[in-house]
């Protein structure tokens, strides 16, 4: 099963294959991104080592990046695009704060005003 520590975190799965140069070219950049995005969990899945898993998930494009939250895919990037990975991380990595999983417009979405009122 999935470790409970990762249940609320953003998980980025890097589907890779030794047969594609783009995978080996983007891997160092992904590792560098992962070093600084410690609130997200990065997992590399190698087609050669885990071919059955790739088949189960119908993975046929490499490299492929899937973003998961609470065990559901929330976004995908096809191809070696570090800029897109950074953008999606910024978009989806809410630092494990459940308030961001709620739809906008609820009462939790309104700012609380304390102290002095603003001058108009």
Brief summary:
Helix content is 28%, strand content 22%.
Low-confidence stretches: 96-120
- Taken as a percent bin, the fraction of beta residues is 15-25%
Which outline best applies?
A: globular
User: Sheet bearing the most strands, described?
Assistant: 4 strands, mixed
Distance from first to last alpha carbon? 56 Å
- What share of residues is helical? 25-40%
Tell me the radius of gyration.
18 Å
Mean pLDDT: 80
Give the SSE string.
EHEHEEH
The neighbouring-strand order within the major sheet is 2-1-3-4
Give the count of helical stretches.
3
Which class of secondary structure composition applies to the elements? alpha+beta
Count of strand segments: 4
Describe the structure.
The protein is α+β, with helices and mostly antiparallel strands and 120 residues long. The chain is 28% helix and 22% strand. The protein contains 3 helices and 4 strands. It has helices spanning 21-36, 51-56, 82-92, and strands at 10-16, 40-46, 64-69, 72-78. It has a 4-stranded mixed sheet, with helices on one face. A hairpin with a 2-residue loop joins β3 (64-69) and β4 (72-78). The radius of gyration is 18 Å and the shape is globular. The relative contact order is 0.20.
């Amino acid at each position: 099963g999935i470790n409970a520590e990762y249940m609320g975190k953003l998980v980025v799965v890097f589907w890779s294959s030794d047969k594609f140069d783009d995978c080996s070219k983007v891997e160092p950049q992904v590792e560098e991104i992962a070093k600084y995005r410690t609130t997200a969990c990065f997992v590399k899945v190698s087609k050669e080592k885990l071919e059955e898993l790739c088949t189960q998930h119908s993975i046929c494009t490499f490299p492929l990046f899937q973003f998961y939250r609470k065990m559901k895919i929330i976004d995908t990037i096809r191809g070696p695009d570090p800029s897109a990975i950074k953008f999606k991380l910024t978009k989806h990595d809410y630092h494990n704060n459940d308030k961001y999983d709620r739809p906008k417009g609820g009462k939790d979405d309104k700012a609380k005003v304390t102290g002095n009122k603003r001058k108009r």
